[in-house]
Write a structure and sequence with these properties.
Blueprint lengths: L1 H5 L3 H4 L10 H10 L5 H15 L1 H13 L5 H11 L24 H10 L1
């Protein structure tokens, strides 16, 4: 993958990639991206996602992008990011000095009085 990141054209012209069989949805994405100016670079970004998300997840994201008729690495990477488990929320302890002593009350009449003053 590091070689492809530096030279994405090798994906199209490189001997190791001739006759390379990708899963069906990824292959369809690859064929559709060939028409784009930066199609090789986009395909390399999608293939790089296999290292972190796995082949099945990337294949599923490609299927979803094809079903929505939107084929780009940005869309596929976004689909993958949305499917990842979110990190647990960080709990922040509030110091006693910063705690409210009096709960705020909503008072729309106060706002109206400010509007009348001007």
């Amino acid at each position: 993958m590091p070689v492809l990141a530096r030279k994405p054209g090798a994906l199209r012209n490189g001997a190791p990639f001739q006759g390379w069989e990708l899963p069906p949805a990824m292959d369809r994405v690859r064929r559709r991206l060939k028409a784009a100016d930066d199609g090789d670079r986009q395909m390399v970004a999608i293939l790089t996602a296999v290292l972190s998300d796995g082949l099945d997840a990337v294949e599923t994201a490609c299927q979803q992008a094809l079903a929505e008729n939107v084929c780009s690495s940005a869309v596929i990477l976004n689909i993958l990011a949305r499917r990842r488990d979110p990190a647990p929320a960080v709990t922040i302890l509030t110091p006693d000095a910063l705690r409210l002593r009096h709960e705020p009350q909503a008072d729309c009449a106060r706002y109206d009085s400010l509007r009348r003053a001007s």
